[in-house]
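A quick aside before the break. I want you to see a complete sequence-to-structure record at least once, exactly as it would be stored in a machine-readable document. Don't worry about memorizing anything.
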Amino acid sequence: MPAQESLLLFRRAPTGLPRRDLKEFAGVLQREVAGGREFCCLITDDRELRRLNRDFRLKDYPTDVLSFPSDEPTESLGDIAISADRAAEQAAEFDHSIAEEIKILMLHGLLHLTGMDHETDSGEMSRSEKRWRKLFNLPAALTERARV
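That is the input. The structure line, written in tokens, reads:
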């Protein structure tokens, strides 16, 4: 099992984020949701998410979370990128902390890495995300908010 520090990377992320708490949560996600399989999560800014979204999805705007599944999921599930800028805006909009929003985005991205897709799975990902969110005591998940 990799060190928790290798699960979560910060690049151009704002100071003041509870990095230790987020790293511990990444470790919990690895054990509980990923079944011990590795993944890496980058927390960065809108500029980086816009570049990644443009380069990989041909969409020229920043987004909150992107998932990049591995070609070799037995070694690593893949990578997640999260915009701390989007997370801060969404946290303010839904009246919870930026740390909670980043955790929601991490969970959402990891579920995608495990093969779930809320756009095509008839609600399976939404139900799973809701169960995990309740277990981790997190506010409404992305798939729940999308229906509001």
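Two observations worth writing down. The helical segments are 4-7, 19-32, 46-57, 84-94, 98-113, 124-135, 142-145. The longest strand covers residues 76-83. We'll return to this after the break.
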